[in-house]
User: Fold alpha-L-fucosidase from Mediterraneibacter gnavus.
Amino acid sequence: MNQEIWNRTEWFRKERFGMFIHWGLYAIPALGEWVMSEKRMTVEEYEKYFEQFDPTDYNPREWARLAKKAGMKYAVLTAKHHDGFCLFDSALTDYKATNTKAGRDLVREFLDAFRAEGLKVGLYFTLIDWHHPDYPKYNDMHHPMRGNEAYKDENINFDRYLEYMHGQVEELVTNYGKLDILWFDFSYDNMCEDTWKAEELIRMVRKHQPDVIIDNRLEGSGEKNGSIVTDHPNIYSGDFASPEMIIPPGGMKDLNGKPIPWELCATMNNHWGYCYYDHTYKTSQTIIRKLVECVSKGGNFILNVGPDAKGRIPKESQEILTQVGEWMEQNGESLYECGISEYDKPEWGRYTQKGNTVYAHIYETPLGALPLYGISPQEVGTITFLSSGAQVQRGEAWNTAMYSDTPFVALGENPVFSYPLPDEIDTVLKIELKK
Ligand code: GLC
Assistant:
């Protein structure tokens, strides 16, 4: 792992929880952000959404308050997705929010609003563009016009596309103040690295935004997790790995077995962009436990919302995020600035750790006293319920004496009795180690 990357990502590795926002014209057909490709729509067919786009309820200040209330510390908005539509006021295209009924630079408003709420800000920008005439079509595996004979012998000038794409990135990194994260999406086939002129692109970005944190999707996926796992990554290898819709079973490590920065990105239902029929939402319990899992494996979690065509975050998402926030308010300390514990995963849940403080995340109701697996009895100092600060009794009793190398705690007064967990989502104990 490269030291410069480790240092640059310090705040990111501390803040742990962010909001991803996928929003664009695709909120109108409301079938997710890939609809143009999935339905093989021509630019003309898709442009009707451009004419229609009128997000009268767009209020990023409300989004920011919701994110903050949920305990999120940063947010990343899709400045441009694969359909090529720009939420920002790019001088290089007319296909932008300023030319819709919205009539404003929606990225600028997002940035202002989230910064005002004290959150760090990032922009998602895709390397792909299904609207640009010079992007490959017939032989491209994702383009809406793939395999369409009309585009078979078309002459395109890919350099012109690259100039456009680099130019837009330059606009984003020069016109909007300090960005904390740049989230590039994505490489496939031979559409990676040199094809994107990735080195030139990132040199330009770093010139304007030396501290911005960048994901790892400019690199092809040939090498396992890219060269970010080596001591000498490419300049475009990125600062963190971006596993999508999966928590890496063992966290993410470099070639020497040392943890690297990584961030799970995942949806709340099963779509990134708004989908009118998708009500398959994860519960707040699932989200909280997955966030705990990420942190216990040294990673972050950026959780997605897909606002609708009017600019509203779906009601279900709002409710779930509010519940997550209630838990975070009382228990966030066990995640922020925390990471992998020196102790192995306990059977009843997970440990996270910050210095000499271990946080026990209990998911399973114990029978009698709860064993604090892995920790030695001499190491255990004060133990409290994180949510209330109330002391937790040690659970040593006649029937625990046989297991003298394991300390026990009792969730009620009598250690041989059983008590329901005070918080079924995740009851957190704060354990101070005597070291
Ligand atoms: C994918 C999809 C995309 C989504 C992204 C988020 O690569 O193409 O629609 O924006 O993942 O990680």
Observations:
- The chain has a mean pLDDT of 97.
- The chain has two domains: 1-336, 340-431.
